[in-house]
């Protein structure tokens, strides 16, 4: 798959499932929370199926083991407090960048494009996680699910990015691995790129483009920039 990316002036990335594989640490904290509350552990793939809409939703889903589950308020509050404290202490025990991420970020940064993170993970968790992995300095802006009044799939995060960078949402490409990423991009008028290795099946996301690594994205952006003027759209 190819597409003309000559108009792109910034790249926004999802975090979990796109830049990093964090399931092992999320599952460990979710199961530590369940153990604290007298519940049996869940398999890592069950925790993975509950990821994508922020910590508040993850706690509800991890407590009920249901995508649409809503835990009792008192139980959820106990679970949320425990989860945040446990996970904050164990952000990168097992969490790793996906292959090609470090190289891709370096190439894109050298290409002169502002890079931002737009995640539904809480900002107070996303920022230290990126710092511990040593890639926080690559980003001009890091937006968490609690940074603005609305999170993905709302277009607000990408509109905010555009306003901060002084560009239009149409000049941003959103790179992610979930429905929320594609829907956010669509609503904002941004290009939607899905990674093939994420937590969801990229073939079912209906993105504009599917890539196997961030290095591939750099190559496509570089190729688009080298197109003759009369072939640009």
From TrEMBL:
GO terms for molecular function: phosphoglycolate phosphatase activity. Its cofactor is Mg(2+). The active site is at 14 (nucleophile). Keywords: Carbohydrate metabolism, Hydrolase, Magnesium, Metal-binding. It is an enzyme of class 3 (hydrolase). Belongs to the HAD-like hydrolase superfamily. CbbY/CbbZ/Gph/YieH family. Specifically catalyzes the dephosphorylation of 2-phosphoglycolate. Is involved in the dissimilation of the intracellular 2-phosphoglycolate formed during the DNA repair of 3'-phosphoglycolate ends, a major class of DNA lesions induced by oxidative stress. This is Phosphoglycolate phosphatase. It comes from Vogesella indigofera (Pseudomonas indigofera).
